[in-house]
Amino acid sequence: MRHLSCPACGSRVFFENYTCLACGAHIAFSPEASQMAALFGEGAVVACANRGQFVCNWATGDDQPLCRSCRLDSVIPNLSFAGNLERWQRIEQAKRRVVYDFMRFGLPIEARDSANPGALTFHFLSTDLAAAPVMTGHDSGLVTLDIAEADDAVREHRRTEMREPYRTLVGHFRHELAHYYFERLVLTSSDIRACRIIFGDERADYQEALQRHYQNGAPVDWRQHFISAYASAHPHEDWAETFAHFVHIAATMDTALDLGFAGELSGRIVDPYTTEDFDALIEAFLPITAKVNEINRSMGQPDMYPFVLSDEVKGKLHFIHMIVARRVRSRAAAQSVDAA
Ligand SMILES: [Zn+2]
Ligand SMILES: [Zn+2]
Ligand SMILES: [Zn+2]
């Protein structure tokens, strides 16, 4: 995340802020300008309709009541149940970070409508209210999230039960959107052949593969080949887990660069989301994770990045980087043709 400043007084403000803590100005994040804007006075922006309940601090445009992030929701939690407003607030906060990621990548993040039925949409469901257990997952642009994941106790219980080193709302969104971008960027392109060589054939029976994974666990040498044990379950999950890590790396490096943590490699990376220099990205990222992990241990906190990138995993990340960078280049080329 790049440094944001108050439009009124110039003090540093954070992505989640509704007001400037220095001068009290009411502020909203403008996704178009990628900067904080004022809600009152000259050049004021219009607040997203979800601001009233402290669900969203973004600005909206195009005469739409909801901002670019909230427009993606088609089912929100039932707010007549105690705790659901707080769950929804945490969910939207995490989602906005991830919508921001994909805007920075320059990847399509449009809301589903009648003209665009395959575009993205989110369902935030509760197992208490649903007829069947709610499974967090992705299906052709529809991302479902079990809102219990917004409860720290529930999520931590699931994390230890599944022996995962990392489980967060941001991580869920990055993982599920990875499935979406597999369909958008790879499945119908000629890259699918290389993708199948690297990640395996995703046409393999999914239910059977997952059942096998939950029964037998991951292969003993999974660390050599996969970023996580779950990634070894099926090629779809390997893609999604690895893609999510690519987003973790870009987002972390964006913040690190802004804070001046990237050392001598900072000159090689202007924008971690769109850089062509994959090697510099990884070379700069790894020492930062080692240092921040050590700092977290000093505080008795879990590691920020509890993962090891094997050479094979770096190769998979490099492939994903190539897919994203190519998409960014072709978009830039299309824009320059439009402008000509
Ligand atoms: Zn201010
Ligand atoms: Zn909003
Ligand atoms: Zn998945």
What do these coordinates show?
The protein is of the alpha/beta class and 340 residues long. Strand 3 and strand 4 form a beta hairpin. The mean pLDDT is 94. It has 3 domains: 1-67, no CATH class; 68-165, no CATH class; 189-340, no CATH class. The chain has 9 helices and 10 strands. The chain has helices at 84-105, 152-161, 169-187, 191-199, 206-216, 222-225, 235-258, 278-298, 311-339, and strands at residues 4-5, 12-13, 27-30, 35-38, 46-47, 59-60, 73-75, 121-125, 137-139, 142-146. The strands form 4 sheets. It has a 4-stranded mixed sheet, with helices on one face. It has a two-stranded antiparallel ribbon with strand order 1-2. A two-stranded antiparallel ribbon has the order 3-4. The radius of gyration is 20 Å and the shape is globular. Bound molecules: zinc ion (ZN) (3 copies). The site of one zinc ion has 4 residues, from helix 3 and helix 7.
Q: Short summary of the structure?
A:
This protein has 340 residues and is of the alpha/beta class. The protein has helices spanning 84-105, 152-161, 169-187, 191-199, 206-216, 222-225, 235-258, 278-298, 311-339; strands at 4-5, 12-13, 27-30, 35-38, 46-47, 59-60, 73-75, 121-125, 137-139, 142-146.
